[in-house]
């Protein structure tokens, strides 16, 4: 079993959780979804995150989803499991079960009640102790959702205090200067290196890579874009990476709409044959005829522009 570490890089797509039209879990679509992520060239995936509608799942559903994803993922395709929960006992239990089932690590976001950075430090000290030192942790920094602001200095202090915190999911926005501070502050004599993967729909991916990010961890419904952009940048072809990104940008921008974005992503995944239904569990948006027409046009334009920019559309 491979695990995430301080040098993990590439694209770890945030996976959707498939539901049937009636809202029941669609475990069969997990298989086709994983296959689509592999075909796109992703290095791994993250499950039970925000895009995975984790907070809308019952405990037994979360475990069923986790086990199906991990069972389908081939050897070497690393899977990070989101285990954020209000209670640390539940967090630790799910995290340990995930690792026993073959996960590469777990992702934890601060709970909204953490009002100070000292409380953030104490919370992660407890979480890490309860998980055990052999469980790699990705720290999810997403203050737009959690309401918890965490400074670059505190993130660096966390990885110094807890060797198992090996990765940062960077989602603060605006956050490019924060990313720079974390990158320059880690991998030093006093602070071990921290892997940095970026979210926010990939909206600022090229700039984040230029600032030292190691890759992407977000749920864009055409993950081959992220794979190709990250690869080109790693090859030293920053301009080609940005040219390709620009061809995808209208769709990237469209998907990051608050609230509506998840419905758009799931509809796109349905159209691509990755899942059977675009169902989003309540509370959640339902696409209108106008929404669908906009998506039609944006996808058609991307299909025409991306190959001309040297990109690909995975089957």
State the main characteristics.
8 strands; TIM Barrel; 315 residues; alpha/beta
SSE string: EHEHEHEHEHHEHEHEHHHH
Q: What is the molecular shape?
A: globular
Any idea what the radius of gyration is? 18 Å
Beta content comes to 5-15%
CATH second-level architecture of the domain at 10-221: Alpha-Beta Barrel
What's the overall average pLDDT, rounded? 96
Pfam family, one: DHDPS
Binding site for pyruvate: 217
InterPro entries: Aldolase_TIM, DapA-like
GO molecular function: 4-hydroxy-tetrahydrodipicolinate synthase activity
Short account of what is shown:
With about 325 residues, the protein is α/β, with parallel strands linked by helices. It has 12 helices and 8 strands.
Furnish the topology, listing elements before pairings.
Blueprint: E1 10-14, H1 27-39, E2 44-47, H2 59-72, E3 78-82, H3 88-100, E4 105-108, H4 117-131, E5 137-141, H5 143-146, H6 152-161, E6 165-170, H7 176-185, E7 195-198, H8 205-210, E8 215-216, H9 223-234, H10 238-255, H11 260-271, H12 289-308
Parallel strand pairs: 1-2, 1-8, 2-3, 3-4, 4-5, 5-6, 6-7, 7-8
Report on this model:
This protein has helices spanning 27-39, 59-72, 88-100, 117-131, 143-146, 152-161, 176-185, 205-210, 223-234, 238-255, 260-271, 289-308, and strands spanning 10-14, 44-47, 78-82, 105-108, 137-141, 165-170, 195-198, 215-216. The protein has 315 residues and is an alpha/beta fold. It has a domain at 10-221: Aldolase class I (TIM Barrel). Strands 1-2-3-4-5-6-7-8 form an 8-stranded parallel barrel, surrounded by 4 helices. The model has no long low-confidence stretch (mean pLDDT 96).
């Amino acid at each position: 079993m491979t695990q995430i570490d301080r040098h993990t890089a590439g694209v770890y797509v945030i996976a959707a959780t498939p539901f049937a039209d009636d809202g029941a879990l669609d475990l069969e679509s997990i298989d086709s979804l994983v296959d689509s992520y592999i075909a796109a060239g992703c290095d791994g995936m993250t499950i039970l995150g925000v895009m995975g509608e984790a907070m809308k799942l019952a405990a037994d559903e979360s475990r069923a989803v986790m086990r199906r994803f991990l069972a389908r993922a081939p050897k070497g395709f690393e899977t990070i499991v989101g285990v954020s929960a209000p209670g640390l006992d539940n967090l630790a239990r799910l995290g340990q079960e995930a690792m026993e089932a073959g996960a590469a690590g777990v992702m934890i976001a601060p709970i909204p009640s953490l009002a100070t950075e000292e409380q953030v430090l104490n919370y992660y000290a407890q979480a890490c102790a309860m998980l055990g030192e052999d469980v790699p942790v990705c720290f999810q920094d997403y203050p737009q959702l959690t309401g918890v602001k965490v400074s670059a200095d505190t993130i660096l202090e966390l990885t110094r205090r807890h060797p198992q915190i090996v990765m940062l999911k960077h989602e603060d926005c605006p956050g490019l200067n924060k990313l720079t501070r974390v990158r320059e502050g880690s991998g030093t004599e006093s602070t071990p290196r921290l892997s940095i993967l970026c979210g926010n729909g990939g909206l600022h991916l090229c700039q984040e890579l230029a600032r030292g990010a190691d890759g992407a961890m977000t749920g864009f419904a055409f993950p081959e874009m992220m794979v190709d952009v990250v690869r080109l940048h790693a090859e030293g072809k920053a301009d080609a990476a940005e040219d390709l990104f620009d061809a995808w940008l209208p769709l990237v921008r469209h998907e990051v709409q608050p609230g509506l974005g998840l419905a758009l992503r799931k509809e796109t995944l349905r159209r691509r044959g990755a899942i059977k239904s675009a169902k989003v569990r309540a509370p959640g948006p339902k696409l209108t005829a106008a929404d669908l027409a906009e998506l039609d046009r944006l996808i058609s334009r991307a299909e025409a522009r991306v190959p001309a920019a040297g990109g690909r559309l995975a089957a």
